[in-house]
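[agent] plan:
  1. take the single chain provided in the ticket
  2. run structure prediction with default settings
  3. attach structure tokens to the ticket
  4. add a short note for the reviewer (M.T.)
[agent] executing step 1
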Amino acid sequence: MKGSPLFLCLFFMACCLNLMPTAENKIFHFGPCRVSMSMTEIRSGFNAIKANIQARDPIRTLSILSHPHSLHKVKSSDRCCITHHLFNFYVDKVFKHCRTEDSYVNRKISSIANSFLSMRRKLRQCHELNQCTCGQESTEKLKQVLVNYEGLNVTSAAIKSLGELDILLDWMEKAP
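[agent] step 2 finished; step 3 output follows
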């Protein structure tokens, strides 16, 4: 039993290190919520399939996320709310309808979807603790995203939304 305190100390340190963000993880501030995520992993997966996905998008005249002011000038206090709803949007609508005949692309989509699921759980906790308030402006911006999405057939809308993922990622990274 002489080694027990040493073992417990090492075990405790390993647990603490596991809870700390890694070098690849970044802490994002969405209003009062702080969430750690690996943007490098998501970007890498998206960049690997971006050209393939965007080539499948037949509609170049419409944007789901870039509609004038969709994500621009979001108040700091609304960032948590709009991010929470956008992650719900991607998980519930976009990833469910983005399947291709290319298994490599499908694996990358699944990997991104899993990252979004993890983030959605973290943001849901903030939302449930009433740390994610939804103002009128964020509600209007989300409505516009949904109107743009629902104006297309399900598959085209999902492909277009996935092809615009870099717009969301850039917006998240530019957060104050």
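[agent] step 4 note for reviewer: Strands lie at 26-30, 33-37.
[agent] ticket updated
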